[in-house]
Each structure stands twice: as structure tokens, then as C-alpha cells.
Amino acid sequence: MVNDPASPESVPGASERRGRLRPDAVVSPASLVGGPAGDDIGGKLHPFGDLHTLQHLSARAARGVRQTFEALWRTETRTWAEPLEVLRLADYRLARGDRLTAWVPLLMDDRPVLCVLDGAFVFELIDLFFGGPGEVPAIMAQEFTPAADILMTRVARALVRALDTAWEPLAPARFDTERVELSSGLHSAIEADEVVIATRFGVARGAGKPALVDILYPVATLKPHSVALTGKVVARPAEVDSEWRTRLTRAAMTVRVPVRSVLAEPTISLAKLMDLKPGDIIPINFGNDVPIVIGGAPLGLGTVGTSNGRAAIRISKLEGPTQ
């Protein structure tokens, strides 16, 4: 189930990923709920195939999740996206047991989404936010305080910005927040028998013990984006627009670049420099060929002369980027 922690012996690195899902957690929905109900999940209510696209979206969103919590406790944060699971909301709630849980309502195109956090993690956030070391009460309260509602409102606003950014390349989804009242229980807009896709993020403060943040997408909420979520990305060469390439070439050919040539670079002593006066001559020597530089890059060598009564250089050898 979504909230079953894996044993540290069975998962590499599990000591720093509490509650990590099994490596085979991306499975067919029918295997999670047996019998006719499971067939119903797989056959009718879950049109998104292997969920690889949504898994990639979760990986993109992990960066925004990191920024959300980093801003709260103002220290280096590690985040990662866990594998997805598909199950009924009632089964998800059953897996969480009776421990205090924060159900934070979000919206995706005005359809419900849920952010789920452990109550202990919420109290840790409150203590950190107000300058404490992140202590959790020895005896957990039975409900959340108004301070928790206010802080979770702030978390929700940051999370919807992260989700907006993650979804932007795939679909024009718009995320928003609803009024957060953690003491009111589960969001009434999602029925217990609805199928949800659970995306999970691990969040760790420095080298501390990770916490888990779940985003639950009801299948009904994602259905308008089913085409984008099931589309296959096929790499193929992009067709070249010949007209655009021609205009780009013509525009590039009109770019003006500076051309210069250094005839000589004589050196004199500082004492002689201090004695210079008008009329003095500084002798210079240069060979038949002088270097030609265009835009700071050497082009080749040329011979100094005149053309139409003006000083000019005849190119005798090309050695630069045109070769």
C-alpha cells in the first residue's frame, strides 16, 4: 500500500528514505485491488497506461517541492520522487491507519487534488518555522491548531506553483488552492471509492530523517489530460524550413565585423619613454607578411600596400576559421 514502509534491509539507502515504496510499485491497478473491483479500476477508471509520463512529471516537480520546504526551514533540503501507485482512496486511508494526517485540498483546473502529510511532520514544520529545532510533541494532539492551518496554506500555495511549473511542458493545467482547514477532515469533493494515483515525494532536511509528502490525483481529475499522459514521445529529425534558413543566412551575411592588422609592436625602455618629445622617431621593423585579425580571431597573413590611393592589405595566406 502507499504508506507501508519498506524494511531497511530490503531497499538500498532505505536508512535515509523512510517509507520508500517497493521497486515494483508501478504496477497494474488490478493487482492492487483484487476481484471485480480491481478489474473495474484497470478496465474503466484508469486510462493512462504505464504512467511513465506522470512519473516523469513527478520527478520534475521534486525540484519545486524542495524549494517549498527549503524556504520554510531555511536549510539545505534533499527531495526525490517515489514510484507511483494506483488504488482506491478508501484503501489509501486504511493504509495510513488512525494516525493524525493533514489532508490539504488543492485544485487542478478546478477539479480536486489532495496533498497528504503526516501530522508529526506538520508539527515539526511549525516548530522549525518559528525558530525551534524541529521538535515533535511527545504526545501527539488529536487535531491540528489554527497555526497549522495557516502554515499549510502557505505550503499549499508554494506546491501549486511547483506543480504548475512541472506540468507546463506537457499540458496547460492550472493548479490552485482551496481554503485549508485541517481539522475538517478529508476533502469532501473526493469520494472514498474513487480511484486515485498517488505520487510521493521524499523530503529530507540536511542529513536528517526523511518525511513523505503525497499528492493524490483522482483519475477523474486527470482524464481531460489523458491524451497528453498516454502519448509516446518519438525522436525524429526536425524538418528544416528552407525559407527560414535562407533568410537566416542572408541576415548573418550582413553582420559587420572589425578587421585589423598589427604592423609592428616595438618595445622601448621606461627611461627612453620618459625622455620622448615631439619629433622623436621610434623605429619599427616588420616583414613582408603581417597578421590579419577579424573579430578577435586570426584570419591569416597579408602584404601591406595601397589600393585606389588608400592603405590596404592583400591576403597572402588564410589560416583562421575560414579554413
Brief write-up:
The chain has helices at 35-45, 52-73, 89-96, 119-129, 146-167, 219-222, 226-230, 242-253, 270-275, and strands at residues 77-81, 85-88, 101-108, 111-118, 175-177, 195-205, 211-218, 259-261, 289-294, 297-307, 310-318.
Could you describe the 3D structure shown?
By secondary structure, the protein is of the alpha+beta class. The protein is 31% helix and 24% strand. It contains nine helices and eleven strands. The chain has helices spanning 35-45, 52-73, 89-96, 119-129, 146-167, 219-222, 226-230, 242-253, 270-275; strands at 77-81, 85-88, 101-108, 111-118, 175-177, 195-205, 211-218, 259-261, 289-294, 297-307, 310-318. Strands 1, 2, 3, 4, 5, 6 and 7 form a seven-stranded antiparallel sheet that branches. It has a four-stranded antiparallel sheet with strand order 8-9-10-11, with no helix packed on it. The chain is elongated, with a radius of gyration of 33 Å. Mean pLDDT is 79; it is low at 1-45.
Task: Quickly list its features.
4-stranded antiparallel beta sheet; 323 residues; disordered N terminus; 9 helices; alpha+beta; 7-stranded antiparallel beta sheet; elongated
Give the beta-strand count: 11
Alpha carbon gyration radius: 33 Å
Low-confidence stretches: 1-45
In round numbers, the mean pLDDT is 79
Q: How much helix is in the residues?
A: 25-40%
Strand content is 15-25%
Helix-strand makeup class:
alpha+beta
Shape: elongated
Per DSSP, the total helix count is: 9
How far apart are the first and last residues' alpha carbons, in Å? 65 Å
**Largest beta-sheet details:** 7 strands, antiparallel
Q: SSE order, as H and E?
A: HHEEHEEHHEEEHHHEHEEE
